[in-house]
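Final report, Chapter 2: Outcomes

The project's central promise was a pipeline that accepts a single protein chain and returns its three-dimensional structure in a standardized token representation, suitable for archiving and comparison. That pipeline is now operational. To close this chapter, we reproduce one record exactly as it appears in the project archive, with the input sequence first and the structure output second.
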Amino acid sequence: MFHPHSCLDCQPASPADPAAQTKVRYLWIALILISSFAIAEFWVSSSSHSLALSADAGHLLSDGLALGIALLATKLAQLPASARATFGYRRIEIVAALINGVGLGAIALWIGIESFGRLFAPPEEILSLPMVITAAIGLGINTLCAFLLHDHSHDDLNLRGAFLHLLADATSSVGVILAAGCVWLLDWNWADAAVSLLVAGLILLSAIPLIRQSLTILLEHPPTHVNVDELQGFLQGFDGVVRVDQLRVWTIALGQTALAAHLQVSSTDGAMRDRLLADIQTALRQTVGIQEIWLQITTPTSAPLVNLSLPQRLDWAIAATSDSQSQNL
């Protein structure tokens, strides 16, 4: 199934694009706030003996790395296309999203391993008051930074990865506050590790969709809003189109979809074929949301296409001819 799209909203950002400049500004603000607080939280976690707080601090450091990667990718993605990068550099944002997703998974694994060990051997003393104060400040900072990036995360997989990092860390801060309450009111030191284990699971759940979507784009699968079979029928529904072959649809970056196909048409009139080509391209852009389109048009009387990707057939024919000549001799 495909849905109407507006191609005006799908153009790559230029260096002068105000939206791109806003992304960069918000990323810088988030990076400075998160990195500064992570250092302070590490110091408090070591003095309060809290694994949950230490895990939150480690996650904050990973947030800083994720924001740095997102910032670099956003800047590089604004570079224009060139002879070496004919599609531009927007796919760097997808690579950054994949790195952030894998980073989230690694953090979840580390927190999970540490939590499992402490669950059966909790520390004798955990200072709950520093945990609550630090986690509350961290919750506020993460919420603010996530709010700054939220609007841009819907159409930018790179920023979505950074946003998920911040959201997961805000959840982690809530867990630290709950654990501190259990330690303070009930003297349940094991709650520190239990909450950390829960946070690890939540982080992992946020990483899996990000990794999956990034790999889907990098492996050049069709976008989710395009059904290839329906698209083939859509193209064959145009008057004059006899057959559609070698249909390929893939995503270059979010909001930038490409299509290549071979169309066999009935008309041999050049003007009619040009009009048909223009109508198909307009329909693909306005109805399906595909911006990059390459169509090869032939007629039944045109010379057949030669598939140069199967040289083994030529080798087989040469070998068969050589055997035949040897037998004749």
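Archive annotation: The radius of gyration is 28 Å.
This record, like all others produced under the grant, will remain available to the consortium after the project formally closes.
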